[in-house]
Amino acid sequence: MKLAIIQNQWTPVQQKYIQTTLKEVELILPEAINDCLFIKEPFILFSSSTEDYHFSKKHHFPFLGFGLSMPCPYLVENIGGLSDSYLHLTYARFYHLPFVLYSSQDFTLREYRSLEFDKVMSFYKLFQDNNSVEPLATDDSIALEQFSSRITEYGYKNHGLWGMFNAKEDLIGQIGITSYENGLELSYILHPDYQRKGIAFSFCEKVLTYAKEELGVDSLDIRIHPDNLPSRKLAEKLQNTEIINLQIITLE
Asked: Which residues contact 211 (CB under 8 A, 6 or more apart)?
């Protein structure tokens, strides 16, 4: 994906800062707003101009505003608020795509799609005899309602439960940030075939970094069943990263 900024709106120093800050998104410099109509690759226009925003709405391409006075749904107060993750989120929201939090050659961590309900239900059945895993409702209609609610929440919370998929798009786990009565918690569950390989730790690190840098979260709880020793070991290992403050709570 590319980030387009109109050349004469930004100083060379600002252009260089943006270019060095973004690692995954390429910066392009159209000379005028009309040049955006000829960009073939996926892109987002970044601008402080209200006229540019209305132009983007007319021609239906994604826009990220600069400055709190902008009337657009996605904006940053200053250039320091730019990040690869936030740009991918803006692009996904505009085109109603699942936001990809992390992707590699072998695995992807992303929001669920509405058509993946059956896949999620099949995954939970692997843990139906595990008391430490909280399932969806046993009634399919209620479970579908719960699942649909999770997807709806992505749009206004920008966090929730994300699915972990392998290269074949098999669901192999779930990690997320969710609300409960005492605040926000980090939760994770991984297919038995993928456990004890460092995968959950790596993905949880990505989620914690996202929580800190994009959501402004500085602390999370991890609620753990007393018999789930592998989960406790993972939680303690995550505590040692000191990315954010993690409070381990043993369930009664």
From this structure: 159, 177, 186, 217, 220, 244
